[in-house]
Every structure is written in C-alpha cells, then in structure tokens.
Amino acid sequence: MKILSGEQLAQADASTIQKQQISSIDLMERVATLVFERLHQRLNGAPVPIKVFCGIGNNGGDGLAIARHLIQHGYHVTTYVTNCSKKRSKDFLVNYDRIKEVTKDWPILLSCKDDFPEIGQQDIVIDAIFGTGINRPIDGWMAEFVEHINNSRAFKVAVDMPSGLFADQAQNDAPVIRANHTFTFQTPKLSFFLPETGNLVGTYEVINIGLDPEYMMQVQPLANLVDKDLAQRMYKNRNPFSHKGDYGHVLVMAGSEGKMGAAVLASGAAINAGAGKVTALIPEDGNTILQCSVPEVMSILSSGESHVTNFDHELQNYVLCVGPGLGLKDDTFSAFAKAISKQASPVVIDADGINLLSRDLGLLKKIPENSILTPHDGELKGLIGEWKGSYDKLSKAQKFSMEHKVILVLKGAFTFTVTPQGMFVNDSGNPGMATAGSGDVLSGVIAAFLAQKYDPITATLFGVYLHGASGDLAVQTYAHEGLKASIISNFIGPAILNLFRQPQQQPPQQQ
Ligand SMILES: NC(=O)C1=CN([C@@H]2O[C@H](COP(=O)(O)OP(=O)(O)OC[C@H]3O[C@@H](n4cnc5c(N)ncnc54)[C@H](OP(=O)(O)O)[C@@H]3O)[C@@H](O)[C@H]2O)[C@@H](O)CC1
Ligand SMILES: [K+]
C-alpha cells in the first residue's frame, strides 16, 4: 500500500472528482458514509453520548456529515464547530446546512476557553477539527482545547488524522489530539509510523474511499507499506524436483568470546528461513557451542581462539552475512575488510560488522551494490552521523543509500527499509521483539532469502516482514515478555504458512 503526502492526497482528490465525474460534496458524502458505517457496526445503536468536534475545512465537513448520519440513526449526538476562522470551506458550508435537515440543534460554536464543553468519561469524541490541510501548529485557545480533549477520559476517534498532527512533516511538541482510534482515508500517513508521533494515532484503520486508481497507480509515494498482501506476493514456491543446492549457501561470519549466541542465532535463523546450507565462520573456542546448538550448521574455524582473526576458506558461491557478536578487535577488523573485499554479490552486514565498517567508511567502495546493512540507531550514527528527529534521519539515510548504493534496514517499532529506489515501512512486529538477539535472527533470515535468489530488495522486505510476523505469531503463546530471539526464529516457518491463511483463522493479536 502506498503512503502519500497530504499534497498528493489533495491531488488524488482532485483527480477523482475530475475522472469519476463526481462533485467534491458527493465524495465527502461517500467518505462520511463509510466512516459512519464502521462506527455503527461497532456501536450498534448504543445510547452513548457522542460529541463531534468539527473544524471549518473539509475535515470539519466530514465531521458534520458523520454527525448527520449518526443523528439520523438515533444516536445521542452533540455537534460543535471550532470557530477559529471566518474562512470556511465550500463543502463544510453545505454540510453545515444539511445537518439542519435532521436536527433542530444547530452545531454549537466554540470560540474561546469559556465555551469548552465538559467531556465525560463515557463520551465518545469524534475529532474532525483538522485533517491533511493543517499547515501550522495549533496555537492560542485551540491549543488549550486540544489539551482539554486530551485530558478527558473519553474514547477519542480521529477522522482521517488526529487533529494537529502533520501528515508528513516534522513538528516540535505541537498540540495534537491523542486518539484511541483513527479512521484514515485511502492511505495511512507517514507520521503514523514514526516514534515521535505514532502513539498519537492509537490503532488505525484505512478506509478505501475509492480515489482515482490511475492516479494512485502512477504516483511516486513517500513510502510503501509492506503488509501481509504484499509479503504473500513476494513468496516464491519451491520446485518439487529441487535440491539443497538450489537454495543457496549462507556463510555467517560471527561470534566472539561471550557472544557465541549471536553466531548461533544468525546461522540458525538462516536455516529456519530456508537456506540450503549454512556455514558459520567462528572463533575456535566457539565450535562446541555452535555444533551443539544447531547441528544443521557447519563450521569453519578462524585461527583466533576468542575472536575471528582471519577470513581463509575454500568456499565458493555463498552469501556472506557478517557481524553478529563479531567484536571490534583490530585483527577482526582486518578479517572483516578482507571478507568484504572478496565479495562479488550483495552481502548482509549487521551489528559489529557495521561498527567495523564505520571505522573506515572507505570500505563502502568495496561493498557490492545492493548489499544490506541492518543497523540499530547507535550503529546507524556511525554511518550517517547524528540527526534531529525521524524526518532528518530518513532523509540522511536516503542520501546515504543512494550515494553508496546500499539497502539500509532501520530497525524500530515500524522498521524502515531505505533503498536507492525508494522507502518501505514494515507493518508486522510487536514490542516483545525488543529483545537481545532479535537483530541477529533478522540478519540470518535476510541472508537466507538472498541465498534463495530473491532479489536484494525483496529478500530484505520479505525477511523483515516475516521476522515481524514470526514475532506476532509467537507472542500469542509467549506474551511480549516471554518472547526471545530463538523463539522468533522458530516461528519463521509458521509465519510463512500464515501468509496464506485467511484473516479469520489468525489468532487474536496481543495489544
Ligand atoms: N484527500 C481526499 O481525498 C479527501 C479528503 N477529505 C477530507 O478533507 C480533509 C482535508 O481538508 P482541508 O484541505 O480542507 O483541510 P483541513 O484539515 O480541514 O483544514 C484546513 C483548514 O484549517 C485551517 N488551518 C490549518 N492549520 C491551522 C491551524 N494550525 N490553526 C487554525 N487553522 C488552521 C485552514 O485555514 P487557513 O490556513 O487558510 O487559515 C483551513 O481552513 C482531509 O483530512 C479529509 O478529512 C474528504 O472529505 C474527501 C476526500
Ligand atoms: K481530525
């Protein structure tokens, strides 16, 4: 699913009106009806007090139309208009008139602090104050009003976006409605996925409002959302007459004294994700640990006892996955530099591999095009320097990806994959995955799909999605707290099966 900017959504709106020969007021009615239907489905006629707060633009117009439908269906609705400007949109005014057809109660105008209504704990608040048209932070009495709503214990439903939130631009601590649930139109907005603002959205639900398919097809999005549908389409069926040689060989260069678990997890995950063969290049003293932990994985021993000191072997045709638990010793750096410079096809670099690379960024010239780097924030700083907020981070990461022709996987609540061809947001995963070794598993999974001849971007996106989906399945049994990296790894197979199950067969998600 494409993630568009506010400006692009306005263009999609205009293009829909032109191509579908529908008026903007009819499009607003379509949108409001769809929101009403979803609300009605959940509320089922419940006599709860509903307060609809409308702005004076088209988001407010949506709010008025939603309120009208609710009133028509017998709900207990009070409608308010935040009277912050005389400049009302055309479609707002039409709906301001239309609401008179169903009630004698005019919307109540709010113009200052004295007008603020009391909001009860049992109320449902529908926030239709600002949507994608917000163009500056909310200030003055409106800022106090946002705080008033946020301080209430009512359940807050945002229309398109929580008011005050910018769809795709940085904002510094500006007042924003803290929604419990957001009905967003056509595409989710980029700010829903960023750590500074994602919590303001609550749960979100995309409503397909039927914007012009031609426009949607050709528009270059800010990012693409990788969800179950897309992941399912990435999957490659196996040929019944195939053999292990068809599924590639992953060489995991990893581990050091006290961190052999990282080598075990990365190489084990590569096996679990379908690599035909996996070999671990590890320090001598780690061999027993590895061989006892994952019997399917072969080993090559470096001459260093406690850490990898050299990269000497006879293997051919393998995919290198380097870094987990490798350590930062000088001779490990030399072995890393040698390993990198011997590769002709994309590699996966994780953890200490990225820290070693940051020691000499000149090595980037030796990394094959479309190699995959999977840094957490601390490691990323070694590559792109410091940043100010998520938008700055993404822009610097994009520049880095294009300049060095590499794929960056920026791990987080929503993992961003930044490629020279564009940016992707991952839709799977949960907070239980914030646990030691989870990243080691991810690097092994991505390397396994590279070895299985998925192209580098697909291998990355598919690996990131499945890693999160494994965590989502595992959490049903283990809870967030009980989740650990080896369990995530063991759920890769079930997560692949789950790609092809219908939603009703999925167990409920832990919130
Ligand atoms: N995309 C689609 O396909 C469809 C979109 N639809 C809906 O339209 C919504 C977008 O509507 P929109 O463009 O009218 O903008 P909206 O968010 O209502 O606000 C604009 C008003 O706010 C004002 N204003 C701005 N910032 C302010 C501030 N800080 N403090 C105070 N005022 C501020 C600004 O005034 P001005 O800047 O001119 O002073 C202007 O009057 C979208 O979210 C969705 O709900 C559907 O109906 C149909 C399909
Ligand atoms: K809103």
Automatic annotation (TrEMBL):
Biological function: Catalyzes the dehydration of the S-form of NAD(P)HX at the expense of ADP, which is converted to AMP. Together with NAD(P)HX epimerase, which catalyzes the epimerization of the S- and R-forms, the enzyme allows the repair of both epimers of NAD(P)HX, a damaged form of NAD(P)H that is a result of enzymatic or heat-dependent hydration. Catalyzes the epimerization of the S- and R-forms of NAD(P)HX, a damaged form of NAD(P)H that is a result of enzymatic or heat-dependent hydration. This is a prerequisite for the S-specific NAD(P)H-hydrate dehydratase to allow the repair of both epimers of NAD(P)HX.
Listed name of the protein: Bifunctional NAD(P)H-hydrate repair enzyme
Organism expressing this protein natively: Nonlabens tegetincola
All copies of domain YjeF C-terminal, residue ranges: 227-499
Residues annotated to bind (6S)-NADPHX: 58-62, 131-137, 160, 262, 325, 376, 440
Cofactor: K(+); Mg(2+)
CDD domains: YXKO-related
Subunit structure: Homotetramer.
Family matches, as InterPro entries: Carbohydrate_kinase_pred_CS (IPR017953), CARKD (IPR000631), Nnr (IPR030677), Ribokinase-like (IPR029056), YjeF_N_dom (IPR004443), YjeF_N_dom_sf (IPR036652)
Annotated residues for binding of K(+): 59, 127, 163
Residues holding AMP: 411-415, 439
Family to which this protein belongs: In the N-terminal section; belongs to the NnrE/AIBP family. In the C-terminal section; belongs to the NnrD/CARKD family.
